[in-house]
C-alpha cells in the first residue's frame, strides 16, 4: 500500500527561458537570459545589475526591478522620476508578457518568454513507497495504539487517531476533535471540504494564501490547512510547487512547525501542518503586550527561532520569509508565552519556483519585503544563511520596540531595504539593556560581512546575556 493516493498522466511540460534583449540605448544588442528565479535591478546606481548610462538624465539610480520566476516575469517601478514604460504605458507593478517592450530613458528592452515543449511523466497526486517515507518508517516503528482524546470534551478518539499509524509519531504536536466538537468549532456557515479535510474556519491570510483550522477526517486530527494562490499558474507549476514541498515533510524539529501533508485539490495547492493555537509574534506584540515585549520574553522567542533556523540551515535550506506572522507560538500565558516555532519553511522558494512573485507583487508577499535582507532582493537565487539571521534580527528589534527600525515607512519597501540605515534600537526604546542593544544593532546591519553569519553565532550571543537580563 502506498502512503498517498496517486494517479499518473503524461502531460506536456513547458521549459521557459526569460530573455531580455536591449534594442535601443548604449548597450544595444546585449542580452540577458534567465532559466530560474532571480531578480534584476535596472538603473544608474552601482547596485544595478544592468547599469544604464550616467549621461541619461531620464533614468533614476534605482529605476525598476524585474523579478524572473519562469515561466513568468514581473516588473516593479521604484518611483522613478520619469517612470517605467511598458508598451507605451507607464506602469508601477505588472506581469510582463512575451514581446513586451520596456522603456527607461534612452534604453528599450524587449522581453521574450522562450518556451520549449517536452513530454514528461507527471504526478498530480503523489504516491510514496511505504518502505522509504519517514512517515511509513514511523508507522512501522510504532504500531501499538496510542491513546487519544478529543481536545474539547475528552471523548476517546483513539481508533480514528491511530487509523493512519501516525498518532505516536505526532503525539507531542497533534490535537483531536470528536465529530460533535468539530461541528461546534466550525465558524463558517458553508461546509468546505477536500477529499480528506473539512475546513472549520479561517485563521488568516493574504496575497499568497489563506490559512484555515481543519480536521483530517480519517483520523479526527486537528490541523492547519493553507491554500496557496499561484495566480494564473499551470497545472505543471502547481505540481512543481507540491513536489518541492515534499522535502519539507522530513523536517522535524521542536522549533519548526511540522508539515504533515500537501496536495492539489480542485486546481489549487494546499499544505497541511500542525495547528498552533498560541497566536503569532505580531499578536504577541499588539494584543498580549500592546507594545514592546520584555527583554527576557523577546530573547526566549528569538532563541527558539534561531534554534529552528540552525536546524533548517543544516538541512541545506534557506527560509527567505521570516516575519512576525510566520513565527507562531504554542499555548502559554501573558508572562510565559509558549514555545516559538518557525512556519512556512520552504514555501517561498517553492512558490517562486512555481512562478509566484515574491518581490514585485502586493499583498502578503509584498508585506514580507521589509523583513528581507538587501542581498535577498538583489540576488534572490544565491541568498545565504546570513539573510535569514538579518530577518531574525528585525523580529527581535520589533519585539523590543513594537516597531521596525526605519523612518520613511511610506516609502517603497524595496527602497527602504536597499537604502535606509536602521535606527539604533535604544533610540526607539532606551530601556533595552545596552549589551542586548549591541547584539540587535549588529544583527540588522545592511552589510552582510558586519552581521551574524549564522543562527548559531547569533544564538550564542543571546545566550551569554541570560544572567544580565
Keywords:
469 residues, Phosphorylase Kinase, domain 1, Tumour Suppressor Smad4, disordered N terminus, 14 helices, seven-stranded antiparallel beta sheet, alpha+beta, Transferase(Phosphotransferase), domain 1
Q: Ranges with pLDDT <50 over ≥5 residues?
A: 1-14, 117-142, 362-367
Radius of gyration, in angstroms, nearest whole number: 24 Å
What kind of sheet is the major sheet?
A: 7 strands, antiparallel
Shape: globular
> Which CATH architecture of the largest domain is right?
Orthogonal Bundle
Structural class: alpha+beta
Proportion of residues in extended strands: 25-35%
The first-to-last residue Cα distance is 55 Å
Secondary structure tally: strands: 20
Task: Provide the domain count.
Answer: 3
Which range best describes the helical content: under 10%, 10-25%, 25-40%, 40-55%, 55-70% or over 70%? 25-40%
CATH superfamily of the largest domain, by name, is Transferase(Phosphotransferase) domain 1
Q: What's the total helix number?
A: 14
What is the CATH class designation of the largest domain? Mainly Alpha
* CATH topology annotation of the largest domain: Transferase(Phosphotransferase), domain 1
Rounded mean pLDDT is: 83
Amino acid at each position: 500500500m502506498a502512503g498517498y493516493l496517486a494517479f499518473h498522466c503524461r502531460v506536456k511540460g513547458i521549459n521557459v527561458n526569460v530573455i531580455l534583449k536591449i534594442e535601443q540605448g548604449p548597450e544595444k544588442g546585449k542580452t540577458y537570459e534567465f532559466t530560474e528565479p532571480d531578480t534584476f535591478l535596472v538603473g544608474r546606481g552601482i547596485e544595478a545589475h544592468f547599469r544604464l548610462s550616467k549621461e541619461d538624465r531620464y533614468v533614476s539610480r534605482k529605476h525598476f526591478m524585474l523579478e524572473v520566476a519562469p515561466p513568468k516575469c514581473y516588473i516593479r517601478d521604484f518611483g522613478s522620476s520619469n517612470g517605467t514604460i511598458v508598451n507605451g504605458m507607464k506602469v508601477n507593478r505588472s506581469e510582463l508578457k512575451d514581446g513586451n517592450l520596456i522603456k527607461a530613458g534612452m534604453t528599450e528592452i524587449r522581453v521574450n518568454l522562450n518556451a520549449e515543449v517536452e513530454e514528461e511523466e507527471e504526478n498530480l497526486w503523489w504516491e510514496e513507497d511505504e518502505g522509504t517515507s519517514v512517515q511509513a518508517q514511523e508507522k512501522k516503528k510504532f504500531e501499538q495504539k496510542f491513546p487519544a482524546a478529543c481536545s474539547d470534551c475528552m471523548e476517546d478518539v483513539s481508533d480514528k487517531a491511530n487509523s493512519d499509524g501516525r498518532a505516536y509519531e505526532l503525539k507531542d504536536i497533534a490535537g483531536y476533535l470528536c465529530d460533535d466538537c468539530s461541528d461546534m468549532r466550525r465558524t463558517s456557515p458553508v461546509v468546505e471540504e477536500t477529499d480528506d479535510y473539512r475546513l472549520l474556519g479561517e485563521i488568516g491570510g493574504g496575497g499568497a494564501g489563506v490559512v484555515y483550522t481543519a480536521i483530517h477526517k480519517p483520523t479526527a486530527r486537528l490541523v492547519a490547512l493553507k491554500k496557496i494562490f499561484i495566480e494564473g499558474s499551470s497545472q505543471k507549476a502547481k505540481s512543481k510547487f507540491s513536489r518541492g514541498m515534499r522535502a519539507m515533510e522530513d523536517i522535524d524539529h521542536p522549533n519548526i512547525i511540522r508539515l504533515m501533508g500537501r496536495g492539489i485539490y480542485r486546481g489549487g495547492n494546499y499544505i497541511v501542518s500542525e495547528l498552533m493555537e498560541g497566536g503569532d509574534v505580531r499578536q504577541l506584540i499588539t494584543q498580549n503586550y500592546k507594545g514592546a515585549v520584555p527583554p527576557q520574553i523577546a530573547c526566549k522567542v528569538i532563541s527558539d527561532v534561531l534554534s529552528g533556523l540552525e536546524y533548517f540551515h543544516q538541512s541545506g535550506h534557506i527560509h527567505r520569509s521570516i516575519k512576525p506572522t510566520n513565527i507562531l507560538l504554542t499555548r502559554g500565558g501573558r508572562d510565559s508565552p509558549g514555545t516559538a516555532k518557525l512556519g512556512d519553511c520552504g514555501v517561498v522558494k517553492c512558490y517562486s519556483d512555481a512562478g509566484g512573485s515574491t518581490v514585485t507583487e502586493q499583498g502578503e508577499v509584498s508585506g514580507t519585503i521589509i523583513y528581507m535582507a538587501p542581498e535577498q532582493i538583489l540576488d534572490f537565487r544565491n541568498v545565504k544563511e546570513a539573510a535569514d539571521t538579518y530577518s531574525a534580527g528585525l523580529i527581535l528589534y520589533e519585539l523590543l520596540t513594537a516597531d521596525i527600525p526605519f523612518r520613511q515607512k511610506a516609502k517603497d519597501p524595496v527602497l527602504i531595504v536597499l537604502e535606509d540605515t536602521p535606527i539604533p534600537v535604544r533610540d526607539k526604546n532606551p530601556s533595552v539593556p545596552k549589551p542586548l542593544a549591541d547584539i540587535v544593532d549588529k544583527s540588522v546591519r545592511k552589510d552582510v560581512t558586519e552581521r551574524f553569519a549564522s543562527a548559531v553565532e547569533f544564538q550564542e550571543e543571546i545566550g551569554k546575556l541570560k544572567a544580565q537580563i
